[in-house]
Amino acid sequence: MNNRVKIRIKKNDLVEVIAGRDAGKRGKILKVLRERQRVVVQGVGFIKRHTRPNPQRNIKGGIAEREAPIHVSNVMVISPADDKPTRIGFKTLADGRKVRVARRGGEVLDK
What we know:
- By secondary structure, the chain is mainly beta.
- The protein has no helices and ten strands.
- The radius of gyration is 17 Å and the shape is elongated.
């Protein structure tokens, strides 16, 4: 697999899904899977997982719903200025820090 793709999205970013069955939904990034180029978004891409009861691990069993990873190309970060999806760029500040910026409005995404 090509691992050269840069993932500019970080955990806790607010993103909107732009493709797939959940297109238009928004959520927070819960996990970034860099090696697989996927992200887990809160409240998006639910799958049903059948689990067997295991008393030793205190697992009840049954059908559990949880978020599945979706490809990073199917999400875009929400711009803090105008609440619309935007691409991400980088800028070096006067104090030497390299920060992520929203291409749409130019505001800094990193705190």
